[in-house]
Amino acid sequence: MKGDDDNCAELDALYQELGPGLVRYLRRMLQHSSGLAEDIAQDAFVILVRKWPDVRNHPCPKAWLYTVARRLAI
Fold this sequence. Notes:
This protein is an all-alpha fold. About 85% of the residues lie in helices and about 0% in strands.
């Protein structure tokens, strides 16, 4: 379906844009634990994918994603 393709393209673009920065943020937060930072970033993106219909209209999806990741890390 066209809508699914659009969603996948949007999510892929967000992952490419925000993924590396999110992992760096989590790595600093977790005192340089790279593996754990990457796992939490993936978990945050999984939540983002599940909630995408609501999050896509959020004023700042980056802030939403970072908040989810921070809460997962805590």
